[in-house]
Amino acid sequence: MSRPIDVAVGILMQPNGDVLLGQRPEGKPYAGYWEFPGGKVDPGETILEALKREFVEELGIHITSAEEWCGVEHVYPHAHVRLHFFISREWTGEPQGLEGQAFAWQGTVGVEPLLPATIPLLEWLDRVRY
């Protein structure tokens, strides 16, 4: 098995518990699938630094605080990833799809299809948001 790629993933959570999901844009593996936003950790970058950079690049927002939540490894046909999840309840700016991606605030998650590594997290997430 290949060495996993570290990926920083952020769960933006509004006071009512709604979370932000983004849809993977055309040209990327699993295009059209919904996921929590984030991206690869660059060499020399901490996971939190990567998360903050990705949210500026993808959504145009600035994370002001985030707490480490959990980690999950998943092997996709195209990549072996180690996902580092953070929950953020504090940010500045309004999310925008800067890479042409759709996004949606979700209480009960109703968007489909979901990226496979995202599915098991939804039940865990319900324990911390309500």
Automatic annotation (TrEMBL):
InterPro entries: Mutator_MutT, MutT-like, Nudix_hydrolase, NUDIX_hydrolase-like_dom_sf, NUDIX_hydrolase_CS, NUDIX_hydrolase_dom
Keyword Oxidoreductase included in the entry's annotation: no
Alphabetically ordered keywords of this record: DNA damage, DNA repair, DNA replication, Hydrolase, Magnesium, Metal-binding, Mutator protein
SUPFAM superfamilies in the record: Nudix (SSF55811)
Top EC group: hydrolase
Chain sites annotated for binding Mg(2+): 38, 58
EC number(s) reported in the record: 3.6.1.55
Binding site for 8-oxo-dGTP: 24, 35-38
Biological process (GO), any one: DNA replication
Required co-factors: Mg(2+)
Catalyzed reaction equations: 8-oxo-GTP + H2O = 8-oxo-GMP + diphosphate + H(+); 8-oxo-dGTP + H2O = 8-oxo-dGMP + diphosphate + H(+)
Domain called Nudix hydrolase: residue spans: 2-128
Gene Ontology MF term list: 8-oxo-7,8-dihydrodeoxyguanosine triphosphate pyrophosphatase activity; 8-oxo-7,8-dihydroguanosine triphosphate pyrophosphatase activity; 8-oxo-dGDP phosphatase activity; 8-oxo-GDP phosphatase activity; metal ion binding
Family annotation (CDD domains): NUDIX_MutT_NudA_like
Gene3D superfamilies membership: Nucleoside Triphosphate Pyrophosphohydrolase
Signal sequence bounds: none
PANTHER family in the cross-refs: 8-OXO-DGTP DIPHOSPHATASE (PTHR47707), NUDIX HYDROLASE FAMILY PROTEIN (PTHR47707:SF1)
Protein family (similarity comment): Belongs to the Nudix hydrolase family.
Protein name, as recorded: 8-oxo-dGTP diphosphatase
Originating species: Massilia eburnea
